[in-house]
Amino acid sequence: MISVEEARAKLYDLATPVGVETVPLAQAAGRILAQDVSATRDQPPFAASSMDGYAVKRAEVELHAMFKLVGESAAGHGFAGRVGPGQAVRIFTGAPVPEGADFVVIQEDVTARGNLITITDDPGDKDNIRPAGGDFRAGDTIGAPRRLRPADIALLAAMNIPAVPVSRRPQVALISTGDELVMPGGEPGPDQIIASNTFGLKALFDAEGAQTRILPIARDRVSSLETALNLARGADLVITIGGASVGDHDLVAQVAEGLGMDRAFYKVRMRPGKPLMAGHLAGASMVGLPGNPVSSMVCGHIFILPMLRRMMGFVPADPQLKEGQLAEPLSANGPREHYMRACIGSGGLTAFPSQDSSLLTVLADADALILRPPNDPPRDAGDTVFYLPL
Ligand SMILES: Nc1nc2c(c(=O)[nH]1)N[C@H]1C(S)=C(S)[C@@H](COP(=O)(O)OP(=O)(O)OC[C@H]3O[C@@H](n4cnc5c(N)ncnc54)[C@H](O)[C@@H]3O)O[C@H]1N2
Ligand code: MOO
């Protein structure tokens, strides 16, 4: 058995970068920027008014000063002339500040009569002008890799970048294995249960940026598993669920090896998730996850999401652990790294009393996994621990 860290290093070796594709800006939200992109213009491209008012010379601004209106500058339609001494140009928010002016008096501080304006309230010192290039300049860069948030999309649009180089979405094929499984909506026989892991894992991987296909359930027969693994061809990452342990019907390793899988490791010193297996199969990475529902989801967080991040260009890609205080004591940990389902309250972290790896209700209630190192001694309330927010 290897440690979690060793397993993750081996999985990173299997995680081949997926390459780059260009997508229209409107489809780039949530994708991973794959190459640095640079602004092709300044924003704003000219000194712009930040308020509705009158553009004048700052040196002439004082209470009761009068100006003659000589024109108008609106957003999209600037004033072509120059503001001379004693002159003002009517100006609106976002409009170019005309040449000769370096101050905008807001209209609330002005009384206008015909083509004359008088400053009737103290306009203060603020010039109400946004300098050219005050937001960004041509050549300013957004660095890759970066998950594009809505604000990034707006910035890319303002930079006049209509198509964006992003990492291709890793193609993941998910295969549930077991005679006991029926798809949600199916009609389970008396000894059967519903295949839940594939659906939870698809949601987890797709939210990270993958494109996940759920393949038909493979039965506990060599031919059925071979068929499923053949259907997975073309995927970047093939993931099987269940059939990874030591039981007579746990056939995944045997069948995958028969199809030429080159195994990188089997079994990790962790709980849940011990019977994890990984290797290369027909040009793809393959990971065999344990069947217990919580085990497969925890392995998804601890191993598969980091792999996907690596495939999309993120280094480092490890799970981002946080530090927190225990609200309640914990007994000593055994020899395996333990990822305990827990909830975060105002008093700190509380582990759920049952940590059985079949309990999806507990996982659904949890918003953290407390990480216990191997052989961690008993812990008191108030002790600091590492945890992964869920
Ligand atoms: N003698 C031993 N028995 C077991 C060991 C061991 O070391 N020695 N390890 C245990 C651990 S830890 C785990 S985890 C499980 C993992 O076993 P498998 O990966 O072979 O998984 P299965 O036996 O196929 O299934 C386990 C459990 O999960 C249910 N399952 C499977 N797939 C799904 C799915 N897609 N959706 C919902 N539920 C699923 C399955 O029905 C079983 O109840 O082995 C222990 N045993
Ligand atoms: O490792 Mo198993 O995943 O403990 O339930």
DSSP strand tally: 28
- End-to-end C-alpha gap: 26 Å
Main sheet, how many strands, which sense, barrel? Answer: 6 strands, mixed
CATH topology name of the largest domain? Molybdenum Cofactor Biosythetic Enzyme, Chain A
Proportion in helices: 10-25%
CATH architecture of the largest domain, by name, is 3-Layer(aba) Sandwich
The bound ligands are: ligand LQZAQKY5, molybdate ion
Task: Determine the structural class based on helices, strands and strand pairing.
Answer: alpha+beta
Rg, please? Answer: 31 Å
What would you give as the CATH superfamily of the largest domain?
MoaB/Mog-like domain
Number of domains: 4
Strand content: 25-35%
Family: Belongs to the MoeA family.
Keywords: Magnesium, Metal-binding, Molybdenum, Molybdenum cofactor biosynthesis, Transferase
Pathway: Cofactor biosynthesis; molybdopterin biosynthesis
Cofactor: Mg(2+)
Fold and architecture overview:
The chain has 390 residues and is of the alpha+beta class. The protein folds into four domains: 4-17 and 169-311, 3-Layer(aba) Sandwich (Molybdenum Cofactor Biosythetic Enzyme, Chain A); 21-40 and 146-167, Molybdopterin biosynthesis moea protein, domain 2 (Alpha-Beta Complex), CATH 3.90.105.10; 48-130, Molybdopterin biosynthesis moeA protein, domain 3; 322-389, MoeA, C-terminal, domain IV (Beta-clip). Helix content is 19%, strand content 30%. It is built from seven helices and 28 strands. It has a six-stranded mixed β-sheet, with no helix packed on it. The chain has a six-stranded mixed β-sheet with strand order 18-15-19-23-22-20, sandwiched between helices. Strands 21, 24, 25, 26, 27 and 28 form a six-stranded mixed β-sheet that branches. Strand 22 and strand 23 (284-289) form a beta hairpin. The protein is elongated. The mean pLDDT is 96. Ligand LQZAQKY5 binds at residues 176, 178, 180-181, 193, 195-198, 241-247, 250, 272, 274-275, 290-293, 295, 357.
